[in-house]
Specification:
The relative contact order is 0.16. Strand 2 and strand 3 (about 110-115) form a beta hairpin. The protein has about 220 residues and is α+β, with helices and mostly antiparallel strands. Strands 1-2-3-4 form a four-stranded antiparallel β-sheet. The chain contains nine helices and four strands. It has helices at about 5-15, 20-25, 25-50, 60-65, 120-140, 145-150, 175, 190, 195-220; strands spanning about 85-90, 100-105, 110-115, 180-185. It has one domain (about 5-220): 2-Layer Sandwich (BirA Bifunctional Protein, domain 2), CATH 3.30.930.
Amino acid sequence: MIESHTLDFLKELVENNNREWFQANKDRYDKARGNVIELAAEVIAKLHKVDPSVSADLDPKKCVMRIYRDIRFSKNKTPYKNNFGISLPTQGSKLGGVEYYLQIQPGKSFIAGGYWMPEAEHLKAIRQEIDYNAADLKKVIDDKEFVNLFGEFRKQDQLKTTPKGYDADNENIDLLRLKSFIVVHELKDKEVTSANAADKIVDMCSRIYPLNVFLKNAIA
């Protein structure tokens, strides 16, 4: 579970996003990060039983992403993120690709899964899988409970044009135009700070699991 001190630290960081304040509160950051690592370890152990492709040997410390922002090409020069991100890969220890992702942020925590912005080769493979086996994907994403939890899958970033190699009148063109294949479910503060937070998160992951299976099969 996430302790209240972790959310308190993140709330104050928003108001004091500068190196001086961060250094003065480094002990609080280390404590908060340690709390997030503990949650990541608990989730990994439980999630492995649901999705064996999430290795039980994942290092939770490496799954918790850096809080330091890359500001080289950003107009926003604040040095720190206002959240903790946890990446849970399904293909070894390399972060990214088909994965589950947990974000801890006061009032804006969420669990997500799928494949965000696939590389060109993987995007081509996923589109081919949709073209050949769209019924398998639609069985997952059009399920009433799935839609209630994650919303309409097709309503995410799409190409404005038709992907190369496909016809505009393809019955699955709305899926073929997708740039990413992800789902998101928001988590309330009381959910991430509850004693059964890890169970709640893993339950959401279990609902995402069929989508990840489809995507992994596409790029295998």
